[in-house]
Design brief:
Layout lengths: L14 E11 L5 E10 L5 H7 L4 E10 L4 E8 L6 E11 L7 E11 L6 H32 L16 H5 L20 H11 L16 H8 L4 H17 L7 H10 L4 H17 L5 H4 L4 H6 L2 E6 L5 E5 L6 H35 L6 E6 L10 H17 L4 E9 L3 H8 L5 H4 L2 E5 L44 H5 L12 E6 L4 E7 L5 E10 L2 E8 L15 E4 L2 E4 L13 E2 L4 E3 L4 E7 L4 E9 L13 H9 L4 E11 L1 H7 L17 E6 L2 E6 L1
Parallel strand pairs: 8-9, 9-10, 10-11
Antiparallel strand pairs: 1-2, 2-3, 3-4, 4-5, 5-6, 7-8, 12-22, 13-21, 14-20, 14-22, 15-18, 15-19, 15-21, 16-17, 20-24, 23-24
Length: 694
């Protein structure tokens, strides 16, 4: 009756599927052990699943039936997040010692949560809820299948008795598959690479060569010193991929250690590893990445304000990179340097990491192919969730994941604040599953306790800002002065580009000629987000809604709807014959923005249709008691030459579902940056929010 719940059970909705991993039967058929990998759809909040980066969790369940002892033992443990959460469960069915008509059932489980993105208590509640539900339903499910058996006429199973002669042939034919000796390795290793390796190693005797030629063999000392443990199949894959590169690839051939990283990233599937490696080699040649350490000097802004640097090594000998992300002005760096320079700097860090791995391999006398990254999030706040900055980060992650696989050995994230889950929600889908397993996240001062930093880094080299005694030379970061900000046009004129488009647009605003952007909304409750800087002059920011589309702007003359100037575009969409309240309506109160202010905000749309974002020249009001303008107003107006203002802006529309799941925090936008912001004010309505920082 118990076996009937596999491979899936309609009475357990969260039990989606299962696959048999191993199966064993004894010769006398008294012992039957079967191990399965079970796929579960846990009833957890959608946001928690997005933060964790998984839709399903996997458990391994081992059932051991002993017909001689008349027992069934069931063991289960989690495979997903096993480095963060440890779940063990044990169940046992036995015959009552005094009444053979009775079946006894015992069940026990243990739960140990080491860390889970700051949601430890939530995970504990979910686990207890699921476990309690399973206990209540366990008896009901067994009775359901017992009744099913009765309906099929099965009401009695005879007890096991030792056979007179062991039928070896008949009992093993159901559980063992014949395996032919491995003569050569196929071109493509399959996804179940580990199982294939076991079969190949079992089938081949130690004296047999794994591949067909004597060249398919590496020196054992070389492997041990520079590559690490390799199975014969893995060794053969490495040699054959290297030979293929030597025959077909024109240019620099990467070292064995680097080829091995791509093979490991694709579970030694030669075809897939070859594809991503060739793409990476082409990319490196196109952008001269091999020479970046020798030919590219980071701008002074990066050297002063990028709060990251190399710092000794961890206990495993891996180079240690320290990043004080919470103290870094990501928006300021993007605005002052552009995405290209930031990406180049990250690439130079990765190239330096590869070089340090080679050095440490020689120093420690064992293969070191990856580094450890320590990220301190003290000071992380809403400023770091600036949408264009997050987009730049995602692009950088995409480039690094594609070209530096298996280089991150461990990522230690310390002092994660409450806002971290929002950032993790945005970033984690872009991170490879294997890489994500290497993340260890500590909230508050948890890193100082058991299982914390001392497990991975020697006490003598823990940085001083984390309570250690070692002086760390990593820059402290801080706000990038706005005087260093550059316009989109200036950033576009940078030399070699690793991507081609900038996310910012610039616009000029004249007295009597506002700049307007049209956004069409199909689904109500979508979210319009914006980020802009007032580079020159004072402006008024408005949002309007219209049921009908405005006429496309004309570009014939200055008197038409569109003006193009060296400082940016000026587009007017609202026709002069339109009347406010009849043809279009204002959906937010006007927001006055002064020169030098940065404004971020969002608006949840109530209706479909056409929304117009407007930046309008702000005229100084006259004094209330006289028609004469005030002295301050006159002086301020003189600073605005030709009645012209300039803004740099970025807008994006987010689906309501994605917004609520990942960006809800935008609705409460009061934030400083490590207490460095001079002033922060906010303007919010029932359906919108804006943040202004000077």
């Amino acid at each position: 009756a118990y076996e009937r719940r596999f491979p899936t059970c309609p009475l357990i909705p969260m039990f989606v599927a299962s696959d048999t991993v191993n199966e064993y039967k004894s010769e006398d058929e008294a012992i039957h052990v079967i191990e399965r990998r079970c796929k579960l759809d846990i009833d957890a909040p959608r946001l928690l699943k997005k933060i964790a980066g998984v839709d399903y969790v996997y458990f391994v369940q081992k059932n051991s039936l002993n017909r001689r002892e008349r027992t069934l033992h069931i063991e289960a443990y989690n495979e997903t997040f096993s480095n963060r959460v440890i779940i063990n469960e044990h169940c046992c069915y036995t015959v009552h010692p005094e009444n053979e008509d009775w079946t006894c059932f015992e069940q026990s489980a243990s739960l140990d949560i080491k860390s889970f993105f700051g949601f430890e208590s939530t995970v504990e509640k979910i686990a207890m809820k699921q476990y309690t539900s399973n206990i209540k339903k366990g008896k009901e499910i067994i009775e359901y299948y017992l009744k099913q058996l009765e309906e099929e006429g099965i009401t009695f199973v005879p007890r096991w008795t030792p056979p007179v002669a062991c039928k070896l042939e008949s009992s093993t034919s159901h559980t063992r598959r014949p395996v032919s000796p491995a003569i050569s390795i196929p071109d493509s290793a399959t996804k179940e690479g580990l199982n294939n390796k076991e079969i190949l190693n079992t089938a081949s005797s130690p004296s047999e060569p794994t591949a067909g030629t004597p060249d398919d063999k590496l020196d054992a000392d070389y492997i041990k010193r520079y590559l690490g443990d390799l199975t014969p199949m893995q060794e053969s894959c490495l040699i054959r991929l290297r030979q293929w590169l030597q025959e077909t690839h024109k240019g620099k051939i990467p070292k064995d250690e680097h080829i091995l990283r791509f093979l490991r990233a694709r579970d030694f599937n030669i075809d897939k590893a070859r594809e991503i490696l060739c793409q990476s080699l082409t990319w490196r040649k196109q952008h001269q990445v091999d020479y970046i350490l020798d030919t590219w000097n980071p701008p002074q802004v990066l050297q002063d304000y990028y709060a990251g640097g190399w710092h000794h090594h961890d206990k495993d000998g891996r180079p240690l990179y320290v990043l004080r992300l919470g103290q870094m002005d990501t928006k300021g760096l993007v605005r002052a340097l552009g995405e290209e320079a930031l990406l180049r700097y990250v690439l130079s860090i990765n190239e330096e990491g590869l070089r340090r791995c080679e050095e440490n391999t020689k120093v420690f006398g064992r293969p070191i192919s990856s580094w450890t990254c320590l990220v301190d999030l003290e000071g992380l706040n809403m400023r770091h969730l600036w949408r264009p900055g997050v987009k730049a980060l995602l692009r950088i992650i995409e480039v690094v994941e594609a070209n530096y696989p298996e280089t991150l050995g461990r990522l230690l994230i310390l002092r994660a604040p409450r806002v971290f889950p929002v950032l993790w929600t945005l970033v984690s889908p872009f991170i490879d599953d294997n890489t994500r397993k290497k993340f260890l996240i500590y909230a508050g001062n948890d890193y100082q306790g058991p299982g914390g930093l001392l497990d991975y880094i020697d006490k003598e080299i823990i940085p001083d800002f984390l309570g250690g005694e070692c002086m760390c030379e990593v820059p402290e970061g801080g706000l990038v002065p706005k005087s260093l900000y550059r316009t989109a046009e200036e950033l576009e004129n940078e030399d070699i580009k690793l991507w081609t488009e900038t996310i910012y647009q610039s616009a000029s605003v004249f007295k009597g000629a506002p700049h307007e952007v049209l956004i069409q909304i199909v689904d109500a409750s979508s979210v319009i987000t914006w980020d802009f800087d007032v580079c020159k002059g004072d402006i008024v920011f408005n949002i309007f809604h219209s049921k009908r589309a405005p006429q496309p702007p004309k570009k014939e003359s200055l008197g038409a709807h569109s003006i193009t100037s060296p400082g940016g575009n000026n587009v007017q969409l609202i026709d002069k014959v339109w009347q406010l309240g009849r043809d279009y309506s204002m959906v937010e109160s006007p927001l006055i923005c002064k020169e030098g202010e940065s404004v971020q905000g969002s608006h949840v749309t109530r209706w479909p249709g056409f929304y117009i974002l407007q930046w309008k020249f702000h005229s100084m009001p006259a004094c209330a008691t006289t028609n004469l303008p005030r002295v301050d107003d006159v002086l301020a107006s003189l600073q605005v030459s030709s009645h012209k203002c300039k803004v740099m802006y970025y807008t994006e529309v987010i689906g309501s579902e994605d917004f609520r799941g990942s960006m809800t925090s935008l609705e409460s936008s009061h934030s400083g940056f490590s207490q460095l912001s001079a002033a922060t004010t906010s303007s919010s309505q029932s359906h919108s929010s804006s943040m202004i920082s000077r």
